[in-house]
Design goal:
Strand content of chain B: over 45%
Distance between the termini of chain A: 40 Å
Helix content of chain A: under 10%
Largest sheet of chain A: 6 strands, mixed
Radius of gyration of chain A: 14 Å
Shape of chain B: globular
Largest sheet of chain B: 7 strands, mixed
Oligomer: heterodimer
Helix content of chain B: under 10%
Number of helices of chain B: 0
Strand content of chain A: over 45%
Largest interface: A-B, 24 and 24 residues
Number of strands of chain A: 11
Chain lengths: 113, 119
């Protein structure tokens, strides 16, 4: 089966650092994506990891360990506008030749003043 | 670049009627488009994979006769919810993929979504 786990909710303070974890078990792996989604809007791309290690992009970093089936998204210098859902998604060719995205349940992050 | 549009952005319809949602890739050609459904406070669930010029591939549990998908061109896919019922009320999101734009990383570009409410 395909399974991706994330914490349901997290709360952090403006200016702080927060780490959102994601663990996955999928049949096939062709990369892991992190998306940000504000309520009522479509997901927007944040990061992509296909090899082990850390990818840094401004205030956002993402880490992947394929052997552990584990990733995290690190958000630094939190701003109020970072309050949103963060979706972990694995690209997998399950059930056919086309890669599909399997989404986790999403982590609702609330940034407080 | 890599803009995907959806129309309409929201729609309200009566139970038993059909609703068509369009998904367009505006500045690139997408051989593959995906349709997702998202219920409140839940994540995106893949409904079907749409390939240009061929039949869509539906995920387990998704009724292909109820959710008709047509991918007639490289820039347009449509989802028709037939005989809609209140339980079909949801946020429907499409995405399109272009390996060339994404540098080979298999990224999907998402449309803004369509909010469907069935009365």
């Amino acid at each position: 089966g395909q399974n991706i786990d994330q914490p349901t909710e997290m709360t952090a303070t403006e200016g702080a650092i927060v780490q959102i974890n994601c663990t996955y078990q999928t049949s096939g792996f062709n990369g892991l994506f992190w998306y940000q989604q504000h309520a009522g809007e479509a997901p927007t791309f944040l990061s992509y990891n296909v090899l082990d290690g850390l990818e840094e992009k401004g205030r956002f970093s993402s880490f992947l360990s394929r052997s552990k089936g584990y990733s995290y998204l690190l958000l630094k210098e939190l701003q109020m506008k970072d309050s949103a859902s963060y979706l972990c998604a694995v690209s997998s060719p399950y059930g056919g030749a086309t890669n599909k995205l399997i989404f986790g349940t999403g982590t609702l992050l609330a940034v407080q003043p | 670049g890599a803009v995907v549009s959806q129309h309409p952005s929201w729609v309200i319809c009566k139970s038993g009627t059909s609703v068509k949602i369009e998904c367009r890739s505006l500045d690139f050609q997408a051989t593959t488009m995906f349709w997702y459904r998202q219920f409140p406070k839940q994540s995106l669930m893949l409904m079907a994979t749409s390939n240009e010029g061929s039949k869509a591939t539906y995920e387990q549990g998704v009724e292909k006769d109820k959710f008709l998908i047509n991918h007639a061109s490289l820039t347009l896919s449509t989802l028709t919810v037939t005989s809609a019922h209140p339980e079909d009320s949801s946020f429907y999101i499409c995405s399109a993929r272009d390996f060339g734009l994404a540098g080979g990383k298999d990224e999907q570009f998402f449309g803004p979504g369509t909010r469907l409410t069935v009365l």
